# Entry
Amino acid sequence: MHADDGSSQLSAAPRATLLIVDDEAAVRRVLVMRLQLAGYRVVCAEDGEEALTLFHQEQPDLVVLDVMLPKLDGFAVCRRLRAESCVPIIFLTALDNVAERVSGLDLGADDYLPKPFSPKELEARIATILRRMGKGAAVTEPREQSNGTGVMRLGDLVVDTNRRQVTRDGERIALTYTEFSLLELLFREPGRVVPRAEILEQLWGYPPRRAADLRVVDVYVARLRGKLEPDPRNPELILTVRGTGYASQRMGELALSAVG
# Structure
């Protein structure tokens, strides 16, 4: 069993648990050491099957998942996790093809980091996602308060920002933490054009450094449309502003000029 819960460290408050899945022992050692020093509880798996077993045993708050794994690759693991959980997932990938990286996001990952990567950058991305969830490392941080009254009606959708839930005709629509945060950001000021770079910085916590970084935003908008829009190819809720970013509108409002 490749697991280390950092039991030697004392903490009076609950710590977020991270599941690190990578077949390279050196990568696991470095990440365990750094993330435990950052205050997290860390468990590790070296292949896809062990990852699924540990996930059910440990119920981690976030998963760091390598793509190229023995027995069951990262894409397959992500697909199985998304069938039962909205746990945040960060992919680590040595794949050079941007389309391959994006395919991981299509499966429901919250972010990806290309190898070789900086452990410091990974720590920052983990902290950003957990902060958005209202979880911290050694000390649990308070959940960010949502703007507005807590309930928005978008056509036949009911968005409860307090419970972070979306329903249509009483049926809940399953959104990941990142998808819901994107929905909140876009509808915070209906009609305002939100640049893709701003979305990336606000939700993922880093500015675009590579051309592929902005594709994260595009993939998430597409996923959100697929879950919320009656016809994702002709969106009515989330509109594309060519060359800039995205804007939201309530059902029945006039479309913005320059929007397609």
Observations:
- The two ends are 52 Å apart (CA to CA).
- The CA atoms of residues 98 and 211 lie 10 Å apart.
- Confidence is low (pLDDT under 50) at residues 5-12, 138-148, 251-260.
- The first helix runs from residue 25 to 37.
